Amino acid sequence: MTESQRWFFLILAMVLSGVVYLLAPILSPFLVGALLAYLADPVADRLELSGLSRTTSVVIVFIAMTAFVVMLFLIFIPKLGYQIQMLFERVPQAIELFEQRVFPWILTTFSLDPGAFDFANVKKIIVGDLQKTSDIMTQLLGGITRSGLAVVAWVANLVLIPVVTFYLLRDWDLMVDRIKHLLPRNIEPKVSIWAAECDEVLGAFMKGQLLVMFALGVVYASGLWIVGLDLALLVGMIAGLASIVPYMGFIIGIAVASVAAFMQFQDPIVLGYVGVVFIVGQLLEGMLLTPLLVGDRIGLHPVAVIFAIMAGGQLFGFVGVLLALPVAAVIMVLLRHLHEGYKSSTLYASDHQKELEQPEP
Predict the structure, then answer these.
(1) Is the CB of residue 250 less than 8 Å from the CB of residue 223?
(2) Which of 28, 43, 76, 120 makes a 20 to 30 Å CA pair with 92?
(3) DSSP labels for 134-201?
(4) How many CB atoms lie within 10 A of CB 348?
(5) What is the C-alpha separation between 320 and 305, in angstroms, rounded?
(6) Is residue 110's pLDDT more than 70?
(7) In the prediction, which pLDDT does 277 show?
(8) Angle ∠(215,197,58) on CA atoms, nearest 5
């Protein structure tokens, strides 16, 4: 790469960052559509290889995605909202149960002084914070309802996402090919290799790990529903999302489910059933889901994913969250090549050491 090309790409990166920052309020539907198109493109490619035209393949994939999203909104979202409301209503009951049964056991077991703990004040603070949260949500929803422009913008974004997804999915391969031909000829082979590695890293996470998280959420929610837990869907989805970090979903899920089950049934035997659900889910993840959906591909490290999402949200808001994983994948690939270049440079090893490491003829 020549010096002028380095400056060109550096300036281009700075300009794109500035454009993203300035246009962040209107970029969300386009980025969501691009994300959905990226995830659905492999399926459309397989249908196209089977003999269907690109447009027909895209229409089939688009109809399947639309049906899934509609089912999600009509069936799961209302139930999830109801369970969240139920959770807020049961918090005072949980505090009372803790105060009457668990707290005395802790004081007796560890020989603590009851006067050192102002539990009534803690209970008042928690209940007050929950009431403030409820009031804030009510005011927010009321403000959105009263603001006609906010409603119009929300509906426009909602309608725009499937339109953007359809056209990007239809022309995805064409756009990738055009970008490839726009690259300077002397760096195009190397950039193509880097792009393939970025796609492998990003695909290993988004097309693999996210599916594992969703599958685990379904497994946990179904198992807890069989146990009879009222908050089965909410706890299952929380445990599935927390599975982005290995074993965190298991730990958080079994802790939250145990508390919710004890509140509902007040029977220690139910805790054993909850443990069985999460042990089965953990076995399915290790023996079936991860090998099948992720395999041995190298994806993003869970800590890197968490940091990237938090950093993107801090810098660019919701748009930064959407851009966090692709940018993290690019940075990871560049760091990998930088590491290889550093190991082969004189900065890491002297010329004398390099001569010693070379095999003898």
Answers:
(1) no
(2) 76
(3) HHHHHHHHHHHHH-HHHHHHHHHHHHHHHHHHHHHHHTHHHHHHHHHHHS-TTTHHHHHHHHHHHHHH
(4) 12
(5) 13
(6) yes
(7) 93
(8) 60
- Write phi, then psi, for 243 (nearest 5 degrees): -70, 0
Please, what sign has the CA dihedral across residues 282, 286, 290, 292?
Answer: negative
8 Å CB contact between 220 and 236: yes
At residue 297 the predicted structure's pLDDT band, cuts being 50, 70 and 90, is low
- 181 neighbors 173 (Cβ within 8 angstroms): no
Cα(361)–Cα(22) distance, rounded to whole angstroms? 60
Cβ–Cβ under 8 Å, residues 179 and 198: no
Q: Compute φ and ψ for 266, nearest 5 degrees.
A: 50, 40
- Helix then strand then coil, in percent of the chain rounded to 5, is 85, 0, 15
What Rg, from alpha-carbon coordinates, does the chain have? 26
How far the first Cα of the chain sits from its last, in Å, is: 33
How far apart, in whole angstroms, are the C-alpha atoms of residue 305 and residue 321?
10
pTM for the complete prediction?
0.70
Is 65 within 8 Å of 177 (Cβ atoms)?
Answer: no
| pLDDT computed for residue 120 by the predictor | 64
Residues 6+ apart with CB under 8 A from 258: 271, 274, 275
| CA–CA distances in Å: residue 134 to residues 76, 127, 139, 141, 170 | 22, 11, 9, 11, 43
Task: Please determine, for residue 182, whether its predicted confidence score (pLDDT) is greater than 80.
Answer: yes
Question: Position of tokens 């198992």?
Answer: 223
Token pair of 253 as six digits:
């899920």
